[in-house]
Amino acid sequence: MQLTWKDIGTVPSSNDMLDIVLNRTQRKTPTVIRPGFKIQRIRAFYMRKVKFTGEGFAEKFDDIIRGFPNINDLHPFHRDLMDTLYEKNHYKVSLAAVSRAKTLIEQVSRDYVRLLKFGQSLFQCKQLKRAALGRMATIVKKLKDPFAYLEQVRQHLGRLPSIDPNTRTLLICGYPNVGKSSFLRCITKADVEVQPYAFTTKALYVGHFDYKYLRFQAIDTPGILDRPTDEMNNIEMQSIYAIAHLRSCVLYFMDLSEQCGFSIEQQVKLFHSIKPLFANKSVLVVINKTDIIKIEDLEQSSQDLIKTVMNVPGVEIMQTSCYHDDNVMQVRNKACEKLLTARIEQKLKGTARVNNILNKIHVSTPQARDELDRSPFIPEEIKALKKYDVNDPDKRRLAKDVEAENGGAGVYNVNLKDQYLLDDEEWKNDVMPEILDGKNVYDFLDPEIAAKLAALEEEEERLEQEGLKQQIFDAKIKGF
C-alpha cells in the first residue's frame, strides 16, 4: 500500500509545457527542408514533426496522470483526508481535464498526419504542420488552471505524514491545548511544535517508537471542538477521519485544570459526542497536567462527571503529567497492551484462519464394494476396559495424571523411554551415541550383530592358533 507521494513529478505550467515539448521536437527531429526535395520526403518530414510533438504531449500528460494517486483505490482514511484537504471532485476534474487533453492531442495528431499524406507542396505541408501544432498549443493553454491546482496538490501531498492505516497505532485526540503534542514529544522523537495557545497543531503528526520489539506509530491529531460535523473546519475533520478509519487505541486527553480554555463539563461532553467513533476500538482516557490538579482534588460533582466516561465498555482512566514526565511511559505501555490485546481478540474472532485450516483437511470415506457389513474390529481387551472416570478412586493412572502431579505442562517432560521393549529394564536409560569415532553409529546397527561378532572372534582365535603353529614349524625348519 502506498503511504507517501513524495516521488510525484513536478507539474509545469502550460507555457512551460509548451516550451519543453516544442524544444524537444526541435532538437530530436530534422530541421532542414528545401523546395527541391521530392514531395514524399517533404511529407515524411512534416508528418514526423507532428507525430513526434503529439507523442511528446501525450507522454508528459500520461506521466502526470500516473504520478497522482487514484482516489478511488486509496484506503478510506487517505481518501477522506484528500477529500477534506483538496476537495475530491475538484481533484478528479483536474486529472480528467489532463486525460481529456491527452486524448484530444492524440486525435489532432492522427488527423493531421492523415492530411499530410496527401500534401501537394512544401507550402501546403508547412501550413498543415503549423495548424496541427497550433491546435495542440491551444489545448495545452486551456490546462492553465488544472496544472496550477495539481502542482499545489503535489507540493502538499509531499508534506503529508506517512501513516499506515493497518499498523499498530496510538491515536491522541481531545480539545485543543490539553497536552497532546507534549505527550507525543515525550514518547517519540517527533519534532512537534508545542505552544501555550490553542490550535498549534493544524495537521496530523506521526511519531514512531518500539515496544516489546514491535513498531508502533503515534498520531497527534488537531484539536476538536464540540460542534456538529458539518460545522467543523478542515483542521478538525482530519482528526475525525483519523478516529473513524484507523484501527488504533484512542487516547482521549483531558485537562482538569481548565487552562486549555474549556471546562471539565465541555471535555466530558465532547467525549460522549465522538463516542460512536470509538466502536471496536480500545479507549484510554488520559488526565493530563496532574502537576497542577488531580482527580482527587476536584469536587465530588466533577469527579462523578468524569466517571461517566467509564460507561463505555473497555474505557480506563490514567493520570499523567507531560511537564514533569510523570507516568508518561506507564500510559504509553498501558495503551500498547490494550491495543495488542484487542488485535489478538479480533484475530481470534475472525473465521478466515479457521476456514483456511478446514480447507486443507479432507476426510476420505471408502465406497462400499459389496453389501457385506464390515464393522470395525475392537479387541476384547479394549472392550473390557472400565470407562475412565475422573472421580473414581480406582481409575486408571494416565500420563495426564502423572503430568499434573509433577508440575503440569511446561514443567514435566514425558519420558519416552518408558515404553521401550528391552531384555533388561536397566537398559532403558542408557544413552546411545549417535557419532562414535567419527562414524555414524546407526549405519552399523544390525539385529544379528552379536552372533556375527561371536563368529568373528572364533575365526580370529582359529587364525591365531594356525599362525602360531606355522611359526613353530618355520622355526624348526630353520634349526635344521
Strand arrangement, major sheet: 2-3-1-4-5-6
How much of the polypeptide forms β-strand, as a percent range? 5-15%
Helix segment tally? 15
Mean pLDDT: 82
CATH architecture of the largest domain: 3-Layer(aba) Sandwich
Q: What is the CATH superfamily of the largest domain?
A: P-loop containing nucleotide triphosphate hydrolases
For the biggest sheet, the summary is: 6 strands, mixed
Per CATH, what is the topology of the largest domain? Rossmann fold
Q: What is the radius of gyration?
A: 42 Å
How does this structure look, described?
This protein has helices spanning 14-28, 39-67, 76-86, 88-116, 122-141, 144-159, 180-187, 234-245, 264-273, 300-307, 328-349, 352-360, 380-384, 399-405, 449-479; strands spanning 169-174, 205-211, 214-220, 249-255, 282-288, 316-319, 435-436, 439-440. A hairpin with a 2-residue loop joins strand 7 (435-436) and strand 8 (439-440). By secondary structure, the protein is an alpha/beta fold. The chain is flat. The strands form 2 sheets. Strands 2-3-1-4-5-6 form a 6-stranded mixed beta sheet, with helices on both faces. It has a two-stranded antiparallel sheet with strand order 7-8. It has 3 domains: 14-159, Four Helix Bundle (Hemerythrin (Met), subunit A), CATH 1.20.120.1190; 169-349, Rossmann fold; 433-475.
Describe this protein with a few key phrases.
two-stranded antiparallel sheet, alpha/beta, Rossmann fold, Four Helix Bundle (Hemerythrin (Met), subunit A), 48% helix, GTP binding, 3 domains, 8 strands, ribosome biogenesis, 480 residues
